[in-house]
Structures are given as structure tokens and as C-alpha cells.
Amino acid sequence: MNVPLSSPEITQEDIKEVMDVLKSGRLSIGPRIEEFERLIAKYVGVKYAIGVNSGTSALHLILRSLEIGEGDLVITTPFSFVASSNVMLFEKALPIFADIDPNTLNLSPKAVNEVIENLRKGKMSAGKINVDPSKLRAILVVDVFGQPADWDEFEKIAEENGLELIEDSCEAIGAEYKGRKVGTFGSAGAFAFYPNKQITTGEGGVIVTNDEKIHILSRSMRNQGRGEGDEWLTHSRLGYNYRLDEMSAALGVSQLRRLDAILRKREKVAQIYNELLSNVKGIETPYISPATTKMSWFVYVVKLDKNIDRDKVMEYLKENGIQTRPYFLAIHLQKFYRETFGYSEGYFPVTEDVSKRTLALPFFNNISREAQEYVVEKLKEAIEKFCR
Ligand SMILES: Cc1ncc(COP(=O)(O)O)c(C=O)c1O
Questions:
Q1: Which are the contacts of 50, defined by CB distance < 8 A and separation ≥ 6?
Q2: Residue range 93-115: average pLDDT?
Q3: pTM for this one?
């Protein structure tokens, strides 16, 4: 049996919506992006949504709208997709990593407080690069794997220290923290719609915010810096082409209509894995915090015991047609970060330990129970074989 890691759910209705755009001839800057933005803003419960061509673009425009620039410091997690830190480097700002909570795998508020304290004492650097502590500007928090971070704590820390709070919810659309939807914390949030996400636009992302300045600036910058009153060939500020096209927006509208049903399906898939894995030795199933009143399952990630050889497990599963992935490899240990900042093992022990042991299993809306049973059966075999 072949079981892919993920698979987008594309219905006849989705296809019709995209075909209608193609037939209309209006392929960019049209009514569908406006509709998508209106529906996202309503769903999340914010004033503004700005559609862009990726989650990375969304985060980049948030940083630029907050005027985070050269030498500025942004505290963030090393356990994430690399884009959440890369966007700082686009602007010559510096990510200052803090370690994660070993259970939720989200940024640890305690670790963030320690970093702030060390910065104030002049004891903190970005790897081997010296930093100016007076340039601490923001905290960028990621809702990892669809689970909200500890937002009460981060709001408190941001307020006490006069910092901007940025929400990377690229993996978490629809998730709720103590009854409140992600995307509503901090100055602005980002969602992403790559085909492995809960809903997809092909490539795409969106900024959500209640801040009018972020709304105006990011809307202008996604469109080559054209401002209010600008013509096609006049540009008020530096901008990019980060626009989301009409086909993608129409697919987004169609997918968004069934987001709640999709999240229910994914919850069921997760519960089946929890059940099938409940008595499997050597495996830890995902931890859900009591503050997570609604989980938006992005991936299903288990932790293997330290004495299990993950590479061999992955290889064995691959030989049996099962695709898995070691979500995430620590950002500070990526080649580019090692070379630029001089990072090596030992800087963030929790992240490093977790990232050696995590394994994302095949997970998508319409995976069959049979396929899940097959994955678990082969996983059990692999664990027995490759337990050191
Ligand atoms: C946490 C996180 N941040 C940012 C991104 C970037 O989104 P995109 O791939 O749409 O640029 C992703 C996407 O995978 C992500 O998981």
C-alpha cells in the first residue's frame, strides 16, 4: 500500500470555482481575492485580511509594516519551518532564539523571559554575533503543528517589555486558545495555504490584523508599493509582487467554506491515530494543552524514544510505501544558520532533543482507517527492529 504524507482535498466544487475564473478572463486583482479576504477576516474575527502569494510573504510584509530593520532583534523559536526566521534576515534583522516547551513544542514563555533578562544584562548574542540589546523590537511566536502557543503569557511579556507581538499561524488556521481564534493575538498574524495545509490555494497566504497601518502598508507593498491614488506605473514606496491571483483566491474561497468540516475530519484522523498508538511502546503521541480549546491539526507528529533509530524507521516505512518526515530540523542547525551565526549543537537543548526524535506520519482529510492501521502496523515492526 502507498500512503503519502499529505494530500489536498480538491472537490468538484473547487474545480468549478477555479474554472469559472479562467472562463471569466479576470485572472488577477479581481473580485475573488476581495471575497477571500472578506471571508477570512470574518472567520478569524479581525478587521482586515490581506491575501498574498505565500505565508513567507505574509510574514515578510508584517515585519516591513512594523518597520523592523537592520540590527533589530526579534525573539523567536528555533523549532519551526525555516521561513519564520528567514523573513528577519530578508531585512537584516536578527532572530534571537529561545528554547521550546518539551510538551507543546511551542516557544516557552519562561525561555523568552530568560532571553530578555540576559539581553538586558548584555549577556546575549545571536549565536556568535554580538547584538545591541536596545534594538529588541518584537517576539514572533509560531502556533506549531496547529496548536496555539501560550498567548496569555506572550501578550503579558510583550506588554511588559514594550515589544511587538507577531503571530505565525501558518500551520494553525481555525485553532483556538482558551476559546479565542489564532490570528487575533499580537499586532498581526499570518496564515499559509500550501497544499499540505488544512486548506489550500496552491501557493498562498494571508495577513490578518486589526491595525490600520499594517493593513495599508502591507496592501501597498504586496502590489509593487502602489499606494492610495497611485496609477499602475506610479509607486509610493518600495514594494514587491506578492499578489495572490484570482484562481488561487477562488480555490481558497471554496475551501474556506468547508474549513470547519475539514477540521472535524482531521480531528477524527488524529483520534484514530491516538487510539491505534495508545499501547505502542517507544512512541509518544501529540500532547494537547488544556488551553487548546480547538486544535487545528496540520500534521500528526509522534516522538520516538531516544533508543530508536529514526532514520532506519523512516527508511523501513519508505520501503513499505509509507512517506514520513522528521518535522522539524532545528533552524539554528541548518547549514546557512551554522555558517552565518556560528551555531552548533548545545545552544537549545530541548529543541535539539525533540528534533532528533519527531516523526510526522501520513495525515490528510481523507486518509482511510485501513491506511492508518497499515501505517501503525509497519511503525510497530520498525520500532521492534530498530530499537538500539
Ligand atoms: C510555521 C510556518 N511559517 C511559515 C511558513 C511559510 O509558508 P509558505 O510555505 O506558504 O511560504 C510555513 C509553511 O510551511 C510554516 O509552517
A1: 37, 58, 61, 206, 207, 209, 215, 218, 219, 222
A2: 98
A3: 0.98
Listed residue (301, 322, 299) closest to 382, CA to CA: 322
* 299-329 confidence digits (pLDDT tens): 999 999 999 999 999 999 999 999 999 999 9
* pLDDT tens column, 150-167: 999 999 999 999 999 999
CA within 13 Å, CB half, 13: 8
> Which domains are assigned to the chain?
12-257 (3.40.640.10), 260-385 (3.90.1150.10)
Phi, psi dihedral angles at 207 (to 5 degrees): -100, 135
Calpha distance 354→373 (Å, rounded): 25
- Nearest Cα residue to atom 14 of ligand 1: 81
CA distance 153 to 141: 11
Split at pLDDT 50, 70, 90, the class of 124 is confident
Q: Does ligand 1 come within 6 angstroms of the Cβ of 76? A: no
Return the pLDDT at 51: 98
Ligand 1 atom with the smallest distance to the CA of 59 is 4
Is residue 81 within 6 Å of ligand 1 at its C-beta?
A: yes
**Measured distance CA(298)–CA(196) in Å, rounded:** 8
Average confidence score pLDDT of the chain: 97
Hey, which bits of the chain come out as E strands? 48-52, 73-76, 94-97, 125-126, 129-130, 136-142, 164-168, 176-177, 180-181, 188-192, 205-209, 283-284, 292-294, 300-304, 358-361
Q: Which of 107, 170, 193 to mutate to test the pocket of ligand 1 (most atoms within 8 A of CB)?
A: 170
Query: Pairing state of beta strands 136-142 and 164-168?
Result: parallel
Task: With CA atoms as reference, report the closest residue to 189 among 143, 233, 137, 248.
Answer: 143
pLDDT at 82: 98
Instruction: Give the residue, by CA position, lying nearest to ligand 1 atom 8.
Output: 55
